[in-house]
Amino acid sequence: MKLGLMLPVKPDIRWILARQVGVEYAITKAAPELSGQLPPWDFESLHSVKTRFAEQGFRLWALEGDEFDMSRIKLGLPGRDEDIEHYCMMLRNMGRLEIPLLCLNFMAGVGWYRTRVDLPERGGALTSEFDRAAMPPEPELKLSHEKLWSNFEYFIRAVIPAAEEAGVKMGLHPDDPPIERLCGYPRILTSAAAFRRALALAASPNCGVTFCQANFRAMGEDVPALIEEFCRKKQLFFFHFRDIEGTAEHFRETFHDNGPTDMAKLLKLLKENGFDGILRPDHTPTMATEENCEPGYAMLGNLFAVGYIRGILDALKTIEK
Question: Over 70: is that where the pLDDT of 254 sits?
Answer without folding.
Answer: yes
